Amino acid sequence: MAASEALFDAVRGLTERDLVVALVCGGGSALLPAPPEGLTLAEEQALNRALLASGAPIGVMNAIRKHASRIKGGRLAAACAPARVVSLIVSDVPGDDPAQVASGPTVPDAVDARAALAMIEAWKIALPETVLAHIRSAASAAPDPRDPVFARNEVHVIASARISLEAAAARAGAQGVPAVILSDAIEGEARDVGRVHAALAREVACRNRPFVAPVVMLSGGETTVTLRGDGGRGGRNTEFLLAFAQAVDGLEGIHALAADTDGIDGTEDNAGAFADGTSAGRLRASGHDAMTALARNDAWGAFDQLGDLFIPGPTGTNVNDFRAILVRPPMG
To answer: Is this entry keyworded Lipid metabolism (predicted)?
Structure first.
């Protein structure tokens, strides 16, 4: 909360001759708590925990968050008025909507409280009653993007998943491996997305369609994990890979990396992991199995057992998830 208050102090009393340059990246939702009057920090934290456990996509989570904050949803930019605000955005959200990055402290959007309440109901998100009461009240109303206070502001996306995937594709091509970008905005349950990617990899490996091996398939976006078990460890990228590994079990020539570009997958020390057609078999040989690990949301434990965690350390940036699946032609 001290950081949020420091930002408000820094922009207090600006004039129309002042210029504010805001550097905004993923993680700002967590790093800038600012509960509105009537709510406590503990209640804002409870809101965040409920959202993370719900399996809702990031756009839904951020749309709800901004209705229980004094800084999100363009409120920081409004506090800068009448100064002009130029926002430079490092996007970590599917589709690169600037209003979604860090819940948009300097970029308002058009999602109103009624829509946020509909999202809460649709995703069956159990929020503290005090938070729900606030969102239902007029006090939760977020700034309107059409408000003249934002008329002189500018927004520029300077880094994104699209840019990272295009760079990876160019790098693969320079190494003589054709690359295809499936999408930079894939969302959904991590294990389900992993199985879909595995189906594509199997089709290429077995039938040379829809792409011809060798090929590296690239994708980005942000999947979600619905918590089902107790005591498991991991994040969305390791869960994606564990389901992927289970689905390509025994197939040769398939190799995958899935990682969070900020270097931290969930709350663990790894960015993600590596997997191939031998991963599930090696896990069984060690006395474990992928299905049980998935049931416990313990993908970190599974890949730690295999020694296949990817641990580069924090990268200092975040353009969402990065997935690369290399399919090689059959040997011989």
So the answer is: no
Residue 317 sits at the vertex; the CA angle it makes with 315 and 318, to the nearest 5 degrees, is 110
Return the SS3 of 254.
strand
- May I ask the CATH architecture of the domain 161-327? 3-Layer(aba) Sandwich (3.40)
**Secondary structure letter of residue 213 according to DSSP:** S
Q: What is the pLDDT of residue 174?
A: 98
Evaluate if pTM is beyond 0.90.
Answer: no
* Whole-angstrom distance, CA of residue 306 vs CA of residue 242: 11
Per-residue pLDDT tens digits for 111-168:
999 999 999 999 999 999 999 999 999 999 999 999 999 999 999 999 999 999 999 9
Helix/strand/coil (H, E, C) string of 255-293?
Answer: EEEEEECCCCCCCCCCCEEEEECCHHHHHHHCCCCHHHH
Residue type present at position 56: A
Work out the mean pLDDT of the chain and round it to a whole number.
94
Q: How far apart are CA 115 and CA 225, in angstroms?
A: 23
Domain boundaries, the chain: 2-159, 161-327
Task: Tell me the C-alpha to C-alpha distance, in Å, between residue 72 and each of 134, 155, 299, 311.
Answer: 15, 16, 32, 32
Please, which residues have CB within 8 angstroms of residue 149's CB and are 6 or more apart in sequence? 77, 78, 81, 82, 143
The confidence score (pLDDT) of residue 311 equals 97
Phi-psi region of 55 (alpha: psi -120 to 50; beta: other; left: phi over 0): left
Peptide bond into 145 cis (omega under 30): no
pLDDT tens across 87-117, in order? 999 998 888 999 999 999 999 998 999 999 9
Reply yes or no on domain 2-159 having CATH 3.40.50.10180.
yes
